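Table S2 (continued). Query chain:
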Amino acid sequence: MTHDIHIIGGGLAGSEAAWQLAEAGVRVRLSEMRGSGDGTAAHKTDGLAELVCSNSFRSDDATSNAVGLLHQELRTLGSLIMRQADLHRVPAGSALAVDRDLFSESVTTAIASHPNITLVRERVDALPDGPAIIATGPLTAPSLATGIAEATGREALAFFDALAPIVHRETIDMEVAWFASRWDKGDTKDYINCPMTKEEYLAFHAGLIAGEKSEFREWEKDTPYFDGCMPIEVMAERGVDTLRYGPMKPVGLDDPRTGRWPHAVVQLRQDNAQGTLWNIVGFQTKLKHAEQVRLFRTIPGLQNAEFARLGGLHRNTFIRSPELLDGTLRLKSRPNVRFAGQITGCEGYIESASIGLLAGRFAAAELRGETMTPPPVETALGALLNHITGAAVAETYQPMNVNFGLFPPIEGRTKKADRKRMYTDRGRAALADWITPPAEPADTRSAVSQTV
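Corresponding output:
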């Protein structure tokens, strides 16, 4: 099948962009290098939209949370990623978490079976000459990255994404650990909690700092971490109590054995539909594997833990989008090329899919000879797009999850407790106005002719 547009990269953004274009009647060639003999340091399968870090799409609360509002907007706009996430969700309280294998398999099936999409397992080494969307993510092949750098006139920036360990559920000691919601919020009890005394915590903290870490490669040196995916040992180095105010916060979590809050808590979240795998929340790490096993088994409840996957780090590259892209994600120096996903500097699964959705819709409109108005900045989609393409200062541009700080402020004096709901109410109204076509102007010609 000949194609109208070429998408490079079959992650969350590339898959979503391909789906949006195909549903609009555009013929798509989707190139994915995994399955062609090439792979990455982070991916484990050849499946499209593989989740390589957490299995959580984060909060699904659309009334008081920016990412929950983004979920709702994507559902409204027919997102493939959200549809499959909803089909394969696993218990995670107010968060949307998925069975990562079933999710990826279903996205792959949907893409491969669409009559307007040709899925090709191949590595692409240069920017296409025709209409294209680059959605190669944080692990863009070096040859293509070189081509991007040549086209943009600037080197890509880089930081690290980190992988959290995954534990087999049957090896967790539930006589020590207990179920509760995250920090005891909500009515469900979807997290496994492992308590620590002060002495246990201090020993664990010291072990994180002293533990043997994997060596950086030369090209990885002097590369900044992103705070949203900070290795746990780096957090530990920032202060003895940093973890207790972060991923190991014990607030509201009464240990049923003592009736009191522990000094610190390690939480695990369900990772697959069967409930056999659980990931350690916030425990991304660059500790060597043997060191991880030794140290994580000092956590009460995990003394006999068996790990389905240990933690690790991988390189992440992104472009200076506010300087290089226009308001519809086109590369200013080569307008036939759009960028989508993490390579634009958005951070997070759902944010990547969101920018893929917008890139696909912008491209579909352009191929039809139409102009698509960007979503209003009061929406989660619009706020994220504005951050990527214009709001940030390019020299200090860093990856960003969607958050209310990207939205225009609520005008007037408001109560802090009401502000989040006001953001989401305003965002829903703005999206409704954006997707509602304007009323057709009255045909005055017939009326005029009748009066002549």
